[in-house]
Design a protein that fits this description.
The chain is about 35% helix and about 25% strand. By secondary structure, it is an alpha+beta fold. It has a single domain (about 1-170), classed as Heat Shock Protein 90. It is globular, with a radius of gyration of 16 Å. It starts with a helix and ends with a helix.
């Protein structure tokens, strides 16, 4: 119950207690996140590959929480084999698209929208612990940053979470 209350508080604070946006190198955010998750990565014998990541404009605390939720889920839902996670970015017009891909258990495409709704779980608590708030928090963080988030997956074939963040360079140019 305590975990549930803490997650609910985290969810409610995304919009009300966010820090001011600043220029943030995403590589630093991901490195900090991986340092936070180092024991979980080691325990699962996971492999995380980080490609070139841009500097964006955002709330560094919330961006760390976003990556912690996405990478944490990749570790949690890795199945019976060591997780392989790849974090990448590519530029589209006036925004960056960031991806967190894994080789885990996957998600049925029919559940792709539902997983971002608060308290929506695809598995029982006996199978996988958690409150069902993590991806709703991710969506709220991405929304606050002016982007969108979605998932590409098939059951048993891994998952790719993608989200966009407006590019500060094009915003500064008025694009």
């Amino acid at each position: 119950m305590q975990e549930f209350i803490q997650d609910l508080l985290r969810y409610s604070r995304v919009g009300t207690q966010g820090r001011p946006f600043q220029r943030v190198p995403l590589l630093n955010i991901v490195q900090e996140t991986l340092a936070n998750l180092r024991f979980a990565v080691a325990e699962k014998e996971g492999e995380v590959t980080v490609r070139d990541l841009p500097e964006i404009y955002g709330d560094p605390v919330q961006l760390t929480q976003l990556f912690q939720n996405l990478i944490g889920n990749a570790l949690k839902f890795s199945g019976d084999h060591p997780p392989k996670i790849e974090i990448n970015a590519r530029r589209h017009a006036a925004e960056w698209e960031i991806s967190v891909a894994d080789n885990g258990i996957g998600i049925d495409p029919k559940d792709g929208e539902r997983i971002f709704i608060i308290f929506q779980r695809l598995h029982s608590r006996e199978e996988y612990e958690g409150t069902g708030i993590g991806l709703a928090i991710c969506k709220k963080i991405v929304d606050r940053h002016g982007g969108r988030i979605w998932v590409e997956s098939r059951k048993g074939e891994g998952t790719i979470f993608r989200f966009t963040i407006p590019d500060p360079a094009t915003e500064a140019q008025g694009a």
